[in-house]
Structure formats: structure tokens, C-alpha cells
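To the team - 3,4-dihydroxyphenylalanine complex, inputs and output below.
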Amino acid sequence: MLDKIEQIVKNFNSEIENATQKDIFEEIRNKYFSRKGLIAELFEDLKQLSKDEKPKYGQLLNQTKNELNAIFEKYLENYSSKNLESSFNLDLTLPSKKKNLGTKHILNQTLLEIKDIFKGLGFSIYDGPELESDYYNFEALNFPKDHPARDMQDTFFVNKNFLLRTHTSPVQARLMQSTKPPIRAIIPGKVYRNEAISAKSYCLFHQVEGLFIDKDVTFAELTGTLIYFAKQYFGENVKYRFRPSFFPFTEPSSEVDIWWQPKGKTGRWLEILGCGMVDPNVLEFNGIDSEEYTGYAFGLGIERMTMLKYGIDDIRIFFDNDKRFLKQF
Ligand code: DAH
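Output:
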């Protein structure tokens, strides 16, 4: 009996020392500790011993079993922690995986740039509703009743009195009615037009409205401000021109064109904004004394500004959300 025990302990020790894989540990566990394993077999042998010997060997067997068990668990733990270590065996000097971070939409970047320039000139930023009334969108801005923009063909009417604003100018009227001059405001936002969609026009686009009302505001201040703006945005060498124009809410009115010349193509003038001195009728209609105050206003297209700066020739691409386009900025 003693020999048998010694032999089993010897075998166990050499097997456990050489165990290098998870399933070898499982084999050893089965071979020695399972219900039909070698240790259970030894306990079976006990039955054949005499009454005197039984307690002595019983005790020895129990002790041996506990010891082997402890050794087994120790080796197993050792093995597991080593293997865990190797799975954490990272090279921390390797470059990390590239994460694709989103970027600001290019229209938003342009808007931020525009806001920054005007904030530097002391303008504050306001906004107004996209669902607008005919009253603010047209009437308060001196549009005659039969103006083509008031037609369903050009404007998305929601009902007889409400529409999706066709420009950011109605916020001018809202500001004049709610704020005492001086007013020095920038109003960015979405505008909607019921137009055939093409490379040049989309049913939705973005504008930035500007409004400055104070005592003795002059046309020279308007041009000075817009030239400064164009140089800041397009660069010192930008070629621009002021072209006389007409808007119901400004008098005199003008449009500003920028010279656009993509490499290898013939250049041409492209309009970026409309502007003018706020019509005294508009000041009066909205509660500002036109004898005391004058003002200028302008409205520029964010898509147009972006297209010019980056040489983009199709407005629809801003709204496609094609990552190949968006990723370039
Ligand atoms: N609201 C005009 C448009 O959408 C643009 C515009 C022209 C705005 C002249 C102005 C302005 O404030 O003075 O076409």
C-alpha cells in the first residue's frame, strides 16, 4: 500500500511539473482526482486492509490527497497567470489604431469663419424662426402684394399666412420691432425656395443676414465693412465689385460679385451677396424713426461663399452627406 502511494505521488509530481497546456491539467485532474481516479482507487484499497491498519492508512491517504490537491491548484494557478500575462504582453510603443473622428461640415466651418469676422467688428449674433409669417417675410420688408416671391411657384407656403422663410431678412424686421437702435446684428440660418433643383440651386440653403442701424450710418460704411469682410474671407488679393441692384427693403441697393477663376478656365464674376441702405419705409414700418436713424443691411449665401473658396461647382453635394466629399475638409 505504501509503495503504491509513493509511486502515485512520484508520477503525479513529474506529470504536474511537465504540464504546459490547459488540457494536460484537465487530464491530470481526471486521472488522479475524479471519482474513478487513482486516489479514489487507493481509498477503495483501504477496504481490504485490516481494522488496525485502516485508520493509519486512511489518515495518510487523506493527507496525501489534500497535499496533491494543493500542489495541483498551485501549478494550475501559476500556469493561468502566466498565460494571462502573455495576453497582456503588449508593445506600448506601437502606433495606436487610427480612429476616424468626424469633422465639422464644411458649411458649418464657413459659417464659423464668417461669424468670427463679424464678431471682430462688434456684431452680435441672433436667430429667427424658419417657419415664418407672410407678414415678416414680405410685408414688413416692403414687398408689394404682387411680388413674384409671394407666389406659390417660388415659395413653400404652409398655409395662406405661413411659409418657410425665403431669406433671413425677416429677422431684420423682428429685430427692429423688438430692439432699440443701435443694432449691429448677424443672423445666420436656413432658407427655403421652391426651385427646380440643379447644380446651381437647391430647395434649401444657408444665408447670413447683417443689419446695422444707428445715427448717421452711411453707404461708405457698408462698402468698407463688406470689403474688409471679403478680404478676410477670400484673402487680401480678392477681386470684387459692387453692382447696382434692387431689393424692396433697401434703397439704394447693390450686389457684390467676386472674380472667380479656376485654374485653366476662363474667369467670371459670381454674386455672393445683396446689400443696401435700409429703406426708410422699412424703418418706419418696423417702428424706427427714419429721420433720426439710418442703417445698412446685407444678406450673403454660405453655400456660394464656400463654393467660391474651395472650387466646388455643384451645390447639391453639400446635402448628399457623401463621406468622400465631407472628409476633404
Ligand atoms: N434677402 C435677399 C435675398 O435673399 C438678400 C439681401 C439683399 C439681404 C439685400 C439684405 C439686403 O439684407 O440688404 O436675395
